[in-house]
Amino acid sequence: MKRIFSVSKWMLLIVTAVNFLNCTQPKDNKEATIKAEADTAAITASNSITQFADINGRKIAYRSIGNGEPMILCQRFRGNLDDWDPLFLDELAKEYKVITFDYTGLGLSTGNTPNNMTGFAKDVTDLATALQLKKFIIGGWSFGGWVAQIVTTESPALISQTILIGTRPPGKFDHPFEDIFFQTALKPSNDFADEIILFFEPTSAFSRDAAKRSHDRIAKRTNKDSLVKVEQLHFYTEGGKDYTNDPYNARQKMMTTKIPILVISGDHEICFPPENWFDLNRKLPTTQVVVIPQSGHGPQHQYPEMVATYIKTFLDNNKKYRTTN
Q: What would the 3-class secondary structure string for the chain be?
């Protein structure tokens, strides 16, 4: 009995000491912490600053918003830092630290642009090293989805989960691009009408209206990235050939990976029809495929909040049930 009283007495002293320390913590420290959290919350996709990571003689341009587990997103064909819908990024940034970037030599990044998929994937792993990220969520849209899959299969120890939007698996495929994609995407410059064709469902009035809302959100940013030049587009096509030839055996690695993978696609994909994923039904043990009706190549721009919710639910559930890598 005496021993129990002694322990209780010491516990009381410890609690009292802790409370005293908390009460005597400098007010400035508390205010600084609150201010730092408020400042982070005030940074959005539309006003975030462009930063640069110096990596082996080149500079990778990137932006970062939010707090939490890091998520690196890889951009589409011909896209730069400005070409993500800011509402989509802001929704993700409510729970995650969202990092977007320009590939080497494209946009505001410097250096020699790669012409194979491991080169593009190295941009991701190099940036992660520069930002001291030991593990992160990898995501990618379109061409960026190819990059994300090569990062997933070549550097699995770095990846907790993978998010793929409007893309296809590595290797040979049976469901190709529609001709209108190349006719539109390869123009010297693209206007709003082209955006509807490339990223939305032109036959749907709702999708066309969503395209206008997304276009206007993206246009609000004033501090712009540099456009990808027409003469640089061959780097993507060379990367695409490499991805289809699949010298890395990435397709087979996707069939054996333990990393959870979410695929989100529009039902009218003029680039990468979701049927390419259906062909691998029951062969991809960790891959879930979501197909959104009356939408095109950019479902996250048509439904930014809904797609972000799909992603967050997928990530949260895999962590809850401990199915992450």
A: CHHHHHHHHHHHHHHHHHHHHHHHCCHHHHHHHHHHHHHHHHCCCCCCCCEEEEECCEEEEEEEECCCEEEEEECCCCCCHHHCCHHHHHHHCCCEEEEEECCCCCCCCCCCCCCCHHHHHHHHHHHHHHCCCCCEEEEEECHHHHHHHHHHHHCHHHEEEEEEECCCCCCCCCCCCCHHHHHHHCCCCCCHHHHHHHHCCCCCHHHHHHHHHHHHHHHCCCCCCCCCCHHHCHHHHHHHHHHHHCCCCHHHHHCCCCCCEEEEEECCCCCCCCHHHHCCCCCCCCEEEEEECCCCCCHHHHCHHHHHHHHHHHHHHHHHCCCCC
pLDDT reported for residue 324: 60
pTM summary value: 0.88
Cα 273 to the chain's mean position, in Å?
A: 20
> Domain 50-320 belongs to what topology?
Rossmann fold (3.40.50)
Supply the pLDDT for residue 4.
36
- Are the C-beta atoms of residues 124 and 114 closer than 8 Å to each other? no
pLDDT reported for residue 321: 86
Q: Where are the domains of the chain?
A: 1-42, 50-320
